[in-house]
UniProtKB/TrEMBL annotation:
Residues 1-24 form the signal peptide. Belongs to the gamma-glutamyltransferase family. Cleaved by autocatalysis into a large and a small subunit. This is Glutathione hydrolase proenzyme. This enzyme consists of two polypeptide chains, which are synthesized in precursor form from a single polypeptide.
C-alpha cells in the first residue's frame, strides 16, 4: 500500500542507520512535530554501498537495512522487511496471505523463484462461488470465510531462509515484533483505508477491537499498537512457522474460517469457508522455473504460473521489441504500449492458470515467434477492439486470433512489494498480499492479523461460457495472480529489480517502468513516478490524471483509443545496480503517500540519471 509521514518506531536501534540514510537524498516528507528522533526518514531514492531496500514504508525498509548492517543477506533482509510490512501495512499484507519470491543468487548467477500463493480447500470445485446456478455477488465472496485460502507467506519465509538465509527466523521477526508492541504513528492514508472498510470491519468484533478501538476510526498522529500480532510473531519465532500449519495457530485459523465471528445484530451475509486443518497441514510452497524474456540484449526474469506476471510482461516485451521505443514520440510509445498490453492480456485470459490443473503453454507464450504473430495486429493509425480474441501459442498464425474473445475478470488491487539487495550482489524481488484492502475483513481472534480473501482471484464463473476459463477453482488449486516481481540481468549480473501492487494493473505498471527506464532513458525513480496507463483487454484504457489531463489523450483518442480515469495505479519499488558498483534504491515519490528507499552506506548522487 503506502505510508506517508513518519512512524513512532522504538523498534530497534537504528539511529546510526537513519542518520546516514537521511544523507542519501533529501527527504520527501518532513517528520511531524513530536515524532521520535529515531523515526526513519522517508526518501524515494537513495544510492550507495553495502546493500539496499525499497518498500512502501520507512519502518519496514529500516528493518531490512538493519539486518543488512548486521551482516544478513538480501533474503534475511527481505523477510524482516516483509514481517514489518505485516505490522504497518496490515490491509495489504501479512502472515494471513501469500505471495511470490524471486531471488538472484550472485554466486551461481542464477534466478530462483518460490510460489507462495494461497491454495483452495481440498473440497473446492468450479462451483465454489456459485449458488442456485449463479455466481454470488463479488462483495459477498470478498467478506467471507469462503474466499480465504491457506496462507502461504510464512511458508515462503521458511522456504527462502532454509535455502539461502543466514539468520534464524526468530531474529528476523524481532524488529516487527517490537514495532507491533510499541506501535507506529497513524497517518491520513491508514485512517482513510480504515474508514473505507469501517462498515465491514465493524461486523467482526475482533477486527473492530483492533482497527476501530472504542468504535472510532484511528486518529491521525495517534500511536497504533498490535500486541496480539507481537505475540503471534514471538510464537512463530520460537516455535517455527509449523505452528501456523500444524499447531494451535492453525486450529485458530480453521475455526475462524469455518465459523466467522460475526457481531450480534450484523445483517451482512458472511458465508463460512471449508478450510480444514488438513488443508493447512498439507500446504507446500512450489519451486518454479522463472520465466525469461530477452529484451534489448538483457534477460528479464519473472514469476511463472500460477502467476500470470512473468508470461504477460514477457510477451508484451517481446511484442514491443520490434519497435524502437527510444525514437518514438510519446504518443507513439503509449499507443504501442497500450496495444501490446491488450494483446498480452487477451492471451493470458485464455491460457494462464494453475499449472497443476491446466496445461499452461508458458514456453509458447514467451516465444518470439508467437509475439511476432501477434505484434503484426498493431497498426499505427488504428486501435484494436477489446475483448480481443486470443492467439494460439502452439500454432502461431500471423496477424490472426483464434477462438472466441472473453473479457478480463476482476482482480483486487491491493498488495505490497519490496526489493532488496546485499553487499554480495544477491537480489530479491518479493510481492506479497492479502488481496483486497483489508483482505476478508476477518481478524483471527487473539492473533492480530487479517485473513486473506485470495480465492476471489479465481473466476467465479467463466467470463464467456463459450471460452475455456483456466482460472476456475479446484481442490488445492492456486488462483491466477498478476503479481510480477521481476529481476533483469545483463550477461548474468543484475542491473534492475522491481515490482508493484495493484491487482491486474501490476503487469502494466511493471511494463511501463521497464520500458520507461530501458527504452525512454528515465532514471529509475522517474520511470516509477511517470504517469501510468493500463490496458487489460478491456473496452477502455485506464489513465492516471497526468495523462488524462494531457494533450496526449486527445492525440490518442483521434486514432480510436477510449479512456477512463483512475486516480492512482500501482505503487512500485525497485533497485538498480549502477555502473560504479553502487546500489540505487527507488520508490514512489507521491503514490500511496510515497515509498521508502534506503541503502546501508549512502554515497554520491542518488538519481542514477
Amino acid at each position: 500500500m503506502r505510508r506517508s509521514a513518519a512512524r513512532n518506531v522504538s523498534v530497534f536501534a537504528v539511529a546510526a542507520a537513519v542518520v546516514s540514510i537521511g544523507a542519501a537524498a533529501p527527504p520527501s516528507h518532513s517528520p511531524p512535530v513530536g515524532t521520535p528522533a529515531n523515526t526513519p526518514v522517508k526518501s524515494p531514492v537513495a544510492a550507495g554501498y553495502g546493500g539496499a531496500i525499497a518498500s512502501v514504508d520507512p519502518d519496514a525498509s529500516a528493518a531490512g537495512i538493519e539486518v543488512l548492517r548486521r551482516g544478513g543477506n538480501a533474503v534475511d533482509a527481505a523477510v524482516a522487511t516483509a514481517a514489518a510490512l505485516g505490522v504497518t501495512e496490515p490491509y495489504s499484507a501479512g502472515i494471513g496471505g501469500g505471495g511470490y519470491f524471486v531471488y538472484y543468487d550472485a554466486r551461481s548467477r542464477k534466478v530462483h523463484t518460490i510460489d507462495g500463493r494461497e491454495t483452495a480447500p481440498g473440497s473446492a470445485d468450479a462451483s465454489l462461488f456459485v449458488e442456485n446456478g449463479k455466481p454470488i455477488p463479488f462483495e459477498e465472496g470478498m467478506t467471507s470465510g469462503l474466499g480465504v485460502g491457506t496462507p502461504g507467506t510464512p511458508a515462503t519465509w521458511d522456504t527462502a531462509l532454509d535455502a539461502w538465509g543466514t539468520r534464524p527466523l526468530r531474529q528476523l521477526l524481532q524488529p516487527a515484533e517490537r514495532l507491533a508492541k510499541d506501535g507506529f504513528t497513524v497517518d491520513a492514508t491508514f485512517r482513510s483505508q480504515t474508514e473505507a472498510n469501517q462498515a465491514r470491519f465493524a461486523d467482526f468484533p475482533d477486527t473492530a477491537e483492533l482497527f476501530l478501538p472504542g468504535g472510532q476510526l484511528p486518529v491521525v498522529g495517534s500511536v497504533f499498537k498490535n500486541p496480539d500480532l507481537a505475540r503471534t510473531y514471538k510464537e512463530l519465532g520460537s516455535k517455527g512457522v509449523g505452528t501456523l500449519y500444524r499447531g494451535e495457530l492453525a486450529r485458530d485459523i480453521v475455526r475462524t474460517v469455518r465459523k466467522p465471528p460475526v457481531a450480534a445484530g450484523a445483517t451482512r451475509v458472511v458465508r463460512p469457508g471449508d478450510l480444514t486443518t488438513n488443508d493447512l497441514r498439507s500446504y507446500e510452497t512450489e519451486w518454479r522455473a522463472p520465466t525469461r524474456a530477452g529484451y534489448r540484449g538483457l534477460d528479464v526474469y519473472g514469476m511463472a504460473p500460477s502467476s500470470s506476471g512473468g508470461t504477460t510482461v514477457g510477451e508484451a516485451l517481446n511484442i514491443l521489441e520490434r519497435t524502437d521505443l527510444s525514437q518514438a514520440t510519446q504518443a507513439q510509445y503509449l499507443h504501442r504500449f497500450i496495444e501490446a498490453s491488450r494483446i498480452a492480456f487477451a492471451d493470458r485470459g485464455r491460457w494462464v492458470g494453475d499449472p497443476a490443473f491446466e496445461d499452461v503453454p508458458t514456453k509458447g507464450l514467451l516465444s518470439q515467434r508467437f509475439a511476432d504473430s501477434r505484434e503484426c495486429l498493431i497498426k499505427d493509425n488504428a486501435v484494436l477492439t477489446s475483448p480481443l480474441a486470443p492467439g494460439d501459442p502452439g500454432h502461431p498464425a500471423a496477424c490472426s486470433a483464434s477462438g472466441t474473445a472473453a473479457p478480463t475478470t476482476y482482480e483486487g488491487e491491493n498488495t505490497t512489494h519490496l526489493t532488496a539487495a546485499d553487499k554480495w550482489g544477491n537480489v530479491v524481488a518479493y510481492t506479497l498480499t492479502i488481496e483486497s484492502t483489508g483482505g476478508s475483513g476477518i481478524t483471527v481472534p487473539g492473533r492480530g492479523f487479517l485473513l486473506n480473501n485470495e480465492l476471489t482471484d479465481f473466476s467465479f464463473a467463466p467470463a464467456n461460457p463459450a471460452v475455456h476459463d483456466p482460472n476456475l477453482p479446484g481442490p488445492g488449486s492456486r488462483p491466477r495472480s498478476s503479481m510480477s516481481p521481476t529481476i533483469v540481468l545483463d550477461h548474468g549480473r543484475p542491473v534492475l529489480a522491481l515490482g508493484s501492487p495493484g491487482g491486474a494493473t501490476i503487469i502494466t505498471t511493471v511494463l511501463r517502468t521497464l520500458t520507461g527506464h530501458l527504452d525512454r532513458g528515465l532514471p529509475l525513480v522517474d520511470a516509477i513516478a511517470a504517469p501510468r496507463a493500463s490496458q487489460r483487454n478491456q473496452a477502455t484504457t485506464e489513465l492516471e490524471p497526468a495523462l488524462w489531463n494531457s494533450p496526449l489523450r486527445a492525440e490518442l483518442e483521434a486514432i480510436g483509443h477510449a479512456f477512463r480515469q483512475n486516480p492512482e495505479i500501482g505503487a512500485a519499488t525497485g533497485i538498480q545496480r549502477l555502473p560504479d558498483g553502487r546500489w540505487l534504491a527507488a520508490a514512489e515519490k507521491v503514490r500511496r503517500g510515497g515509498g521508502s528507499a534506503m541503502v546501508v552506506h549512502p554515497s554520491g548522487n542518488p538519481s542514477g540519471g
